[in-house]
Amino acid sequence: MATSRAVPLPTPFPPVGGCCPVPSTAQPRILLITPPLTQLNTPYPATAYLKGFLGGRDYAVTQADLGLELVLQLFSRAGLQRVFAEIEAGSFALSDNARRMLRLKNSYLSTVEPVIRFLQNKDNTLAPRICHSRFLPEASRFDNVADLEAAFGTMGLTDQARHLATLYLEDLGDLIKETVGPQFGFSRYAEKLGMSATTFDALHDALQTEPNLLDRMLLELLDTLLERAQPDIVGFTVPFPGNLYGALRLAARVKQTRPGTYTSMGGGYPNTELRTIREPRFFEYIDFLTLDDGEGPWLRLLEAISGHTERHAELAEASLPLTNQFQGNEAVEMLRQAQHDVSLQSIPTHQLQRTFLRNAAGEVEYINHPAPDVPHPEVGTPDYADLPLTEYLSVIEVLNPMHRLWSDGRWNKLTIAHGCYWKRCSFCDVTLDYISRYETAPAALLVDRIEQIIAQTGQTGFHFVDEAAPPLALRDLAVELLKRRVSITWWGNIRFEKTFTPDLCRLLAASGCIAVSGGLEVASDRLLALMEKGVTIAQVARVTDGFTQAGIMVHAYLMYGFPTETAQETVDSLEIVRQLFQAGIVQSGYWHRFSMTAHSPVGKNPAKYQVVPTGPEPGPFAWNDLWHDDPTGTNHEKFGPGLAKALYNYLHSVALQEPLSFWFDFRVPKTTVPRHLISQALQEPAKPDASRPNNRLFWLGNAPELRQEPGKKGRAVLTFYEQAEDFEVSVPAVLGSWLHELLTRLSTEYDTKVLLKEAAATYPTTGQTWEQFLLSPAWQLLREKGLLIL
Q: Where does the record place the Radical SAM core domain (predicted)?
């Protein structure tokens, strides 16, 4: 069972740019691997973050995305030839669809590499052939193709072709999954083996079987990588269950071919699923399992193994010829493992941080030296070196505008703040470090990192991967981007809280924001309060309207099946969602079924939420997803298909007037939500500008030109030359110079904050009071054109 060891007092981390402890011998060479599979369009950021951090401390780090490399190897002419040859030589029970694809083998072989080049944006001229000729062989994924001209327009050939090319790849993926690679999926690999795996038995058994074709391709890629990198330690990031099997299969190969090399694992899956691990067999593959952020544990681990890698390598080198000669011999394998264990025992592990290992007694031990976490401002800039950024694929899987951002385009990943500033939602893992420890970084430092990443990657698209990006931190980031005239395109996750005023939304849009996603969850004020979301439906409506008016797309995360949710509340939630889409203030959404986890408030205290845990019993391996009964709620499962169907139609502006019962094949209650609830929420008058004297003025436009018009009334005219359209503002002559000076200062001096009350203090004496001026047509026109109060 897992034990905890007493450790000495902590040693602080070296400061950024400072010197870290120098080992007595050469520092270990590090290889960081993202195993299959996560995304095809952009690298998962974990290895880039860790490489940037460790590289800043002079460690030699190589990184690789073996998920991408496996896909590129598989979907090449040579790779598909191996697939077809193995299918033809095997005894698979083929579906009609698979047999059709085998008959089209030559068509697939001749088109696969052009399609991959097209999806890599290396040959966009192929788009007309994909759209308008019989270029692509078609199988079952093409059976229900939507009206593409309606979806993409007559000029959107590239996007339309990208969608068809994605369907083509998914057809091939279906064939592979049916035959030579049953674990394959484009964003997961053997995911079922890692999901809710309270015991290690199924995974261990799968890893003991002969590698299938995809496994063999993956191991070939690893062999080449190991030969090139010559690592002393290989680290695997496992963000999802679908990465676990691949990581362990790769780790086994490292053990087999380089017994002198240590293996380590971290990432989102261990952080949530393996916090109570006591399975010794897991450590036949992985030497060190680290929890939470990797920076601190890796520093401690590298300090521990530095100076021991040479002795470890000597022991391994002595056994390697024997191992290679008698591979699979049980006695030889036991000798090699014993030598490896002896080497591990010589490591001073007492200073490791948040790390599991197998100790000399063969038991799983948890060591947590009480060292401080690496502060968020000191984690460094993600380093994308080694990753083949031009080789990623831009795909369009479904006709959903937000899902397209997830799968299309190369997005640099960056975090505004560590953790969640709210950290109260009862369904969320708020007890874990990645959410509970909230830290921010200065806006200037964030923009420094943005500029470094742009210089390295040549890409200006950013996905801010915060749990919920803080509104004030986003405000400061936007101001810094505008001040330094750094042009980026960005999107990220937020909470629909009232701090996101229409003016803040416009500022974010000016800084490059194109989309936000946020949790509406269950559109019921009772359940939102039970969830401790800290928002109301009316508030969500006003915030999403502010983003939409600023030209920012809004995606809503929706949830059904929350504890005690009734059928009435589910139907009422759908009605709220319908009204949000009808009002045009939400453009995308997705329904998730509530899941109870061990680290959430619901999982910690199910009685408070009137649910009954039914399992699984904690086992020696993973433990996070919990089963439960909801005695006071409805049969949630049966609502899923109808909710998904309704939402799909709503986001395409279809059937918005149909009764809610239209989407279900069983009787549902009529909604109790007033049909104009959302539109009435949007009619709430905004606070007058005069009521916000301590807020800052911000002008998004250019400095105007001023001219005085002669005449008895003495008018001054300010002319604005802007990107969209030029316009003029006319004010009394006495206000001309004052307003010109104010707007010029706001347009050029971003470092100088001008509060509304400070502008009021310099307002010239006229026949019009300050409050009257704030209601005047001139002021309202400026507010419309980009004068913000933040």
A: 406-665
Q: List the CATH number of the domain containing 194.
A: 3.40.50
Residues 678 and 695 in one domain: no
Same domain, 244 and 350: yes
Q: Which domain holds residue 136?
A: 93-178
Residue 122 within a domain: yes
pLDDT category of residue 712 using cuts at 50, 70 and 90: low
Residue pLDDT, tens place only, 3-33: 443 333 333 333 333 333 333 346 899 999 9
Mean per-residue pLDDT for 199-224?
A: 94
As a whole number of angstroms, the distance between CA 773 and CA 771 comes to 5
Q: How confident is the model at residue 398 (pLDDT cuts 50, 70, 90)?
A: confident
CA distances from 455 to 383, 441, 479 (A): 11, 21, 21
How many Cβ atoms sit within 10 Å of the Cβ of residue 329?
A: 13
Residue 240: CB atoms within 10 Å: 18
Q: Does the residue 10 lie in any domain? A: no
Q: How far apart are CA 702 and CA 113, in angstroms?
A: 49
Q: How far is it, in rounded angstroms, from Cα 63 to Cα 72?
A: 17
Task: Indicate if 169 and 206 belong to the same structural domain.
Answer: no
Q: Identify whether the C-beta of residue 194 lies closer than 8 Å to the C-beta of residue 622.
A: yes
Q: What is the total count of domains within the chain?
A: 4
CATH number of the domain that 634 lies in? 3.20.20.70
Question: Kind of pairing, strands 625-629 and 612-615?
Answer: antiparallel
Q: Is residue 15 assigned to a domain?
A: no
Q: What is the spatial distance between Cα 330 and Cα 333, in angstroms, rounded to a whole number?
A: 5
What predicted TM-score, i.e. pTM, was given to this entire model? 0.89
Q: Which of 121, 154, 178 is the last residue of a domain?
A: 178
Q: What DSSP designation does 713 have?
A: S
Distance between CA 234 and CA 62 in Å, rounded?
A: 10
The SS3 assignment for 262 reads: strand
> In this structure, are 150 and 262 located in the same domain?
no
pLDDT in tens, 97-155: 999 999 999 999 999 999 999 999 999 999 999 988 788 888 888 877 765 655 555 54
Residue 784 lies in a domain: yes
The full length of the chain comes to 790
What would the mean pLDDT of 406-415 be, rounded to a whole number? 90
Residues 669 and 566 placed together within one structural domain of the fold: yes
CB-facing half-sphere around the CA of 34: CA atoms within 13 A:
29
Judge if the upstream peptide bond of residue 8 is cis by omega within 30 degrees of 0: no
d(CA 33, CA 16): 25
Interhelix angle 309-325/330-345, nearest 10 degrees = 180
Q: How many CB atoms lie within 10 A of CB 208?
A: 8
Q: For residue 310, what pLDDT is reported?
A: 57
Tokens of 296: 């601190």
Structure tokens at 754: 């001008």
**Tokens of residue 122, six digits:** 């290396």
623 in the same domain as 479: yes
What confidence category does residue 757 fall into, taking pLDDT thresholds of 50, 70 and 90? very high
Residue that is last in its domain, among 350, 367, 384: 367
Q: At what angle do helices 77-89 and 157-178 cross, to 10 degrees?
A: 30
What pLDDT shows up at residue 239? 94
pLDDT at res. 321: 56
pLDDT of 574 higher than 60: yes
Are 499 and 588 contained in the same domain? yes
Which residues, at least 6 apart from 48, have a Cβ–Cβ distance to it below 8 Å? 63, 382, 383, 384, 387, 413
CB-based contact 173:40 (threshold 8 Å):
no
Token pair for 281: 């067999």
| Own/partner pairs, 481-485, CB within 8 angstroms, 24+ separation | 481/447, 481/450, 481/511, 481/512, 482/510, 482/511, 482/700, 482/750, 483/750, 483/751, 484/447
Of the given ranges (26-30, 140-144, 281-285, 636-640), which has the lowest mean pLDDT?
140-144
d(CA 435, CA 433): 5
Question: Measured between alpha carbons, how far is 769 from 777 in angstroms, rounded to an integer?
Answer: 14
- State both tokens at 752: 């100088």
